[in-house]
């Protein structure tokens, strides 16, 4: 399988957003329930891309929550509903974040052990944390492709690991 290269430049989601959202069509943002991040996402979208329509779906752990089969089914049903309602969804943008409680407690959230068996410690090294989010994303994207690519040919996937100062792009496996 080919893999897109991770962005080598330092770039925040806010700086990258115009590139992906300017392509036409709508995006569905998959974000986490953590209270620290919805405001940042909403503020960035209204500041950087005023008037751009997008849908938002929120799960504990964002990408991790979407790996839980029952939650993934609801996500897919919401995408189907959005398409039925005339939303021209052309990309899914997954916004994970550092210091995510869901990534510390996968068992308690009924995340399948083949996705994430052992949670991250509170004092995890940034490189280990990023690798963990990347490993979960590498499992999630094929699952979503299997369910959604027939509905939306050419559906794009983008993902970011949000931090307080600088965000880390995560690669999408093709």
Distance between the termini: 6 Å
Say how many strands there are. 5
Number of domains: 1
Q: Mean pLDDT across all residues, rounded?
A: 86
> What Rg is obtained from the alpha carbons, in whole angstroms?
15 Å
CATH architecture identity: 3-Layer(aba) Sandwich
- The tally of helices reads 5
Uncertain regions spanning at least 5 consecutive residues: 1-9
User: What are the secondary-structure elements, in order, as H or E?
Assistant: HEHEHEHHEE
Q: Largest beta sheet: what is the strand line-up?
A: 2-1-3-4-5
Q: What is the fold named in CATH at topology level?
A: Beta-carbonic Anhydrase, Chain A
Structural class: alpha/beta
**Largest sheet geometry:** 5 strands, mixed
* CATH H-level homologous superfamily name: Carbonic anhydrase
CATH class identity: Alpha Beta
Strand content: 15-25%
């Amino acid at each position: 399988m080919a893999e897109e290269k991770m962005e080598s430049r330092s770039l925040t989601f806010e700086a990258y957003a115009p590139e992906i959202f300017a392509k036409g069509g709508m995006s569905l943002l998959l974000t986490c329930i953590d209270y620290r991040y919805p405001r940042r996402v909403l503020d960035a979208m209204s500041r950087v891309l005023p008037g751009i329509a997008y849908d938002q779906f929120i799960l504990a752990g964002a990408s991790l929550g979407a790996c839980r089969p029952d939650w993934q089914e609801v996500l897919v049903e919401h995408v189907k509903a959005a398409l039925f309602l005339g939303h021209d969804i052309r990309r899914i943008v997954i916004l994970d974040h550092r210091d995510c409680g869901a990534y510390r407690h996968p068992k308690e959230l009924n995340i399948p052990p083949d996705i994430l068996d052992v949670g991250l410690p509170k004092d995890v090294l940034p490189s280990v944390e990023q690798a963990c989010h990347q490993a979960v994303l590498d499992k999630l994207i094929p699952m979503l492709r299997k369910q959604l690519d027939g509905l939306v040919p050419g559906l794009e996937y983008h993902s970011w690991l949000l931090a307080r100062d600088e965000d880390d792009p995560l690669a999408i496996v093709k």
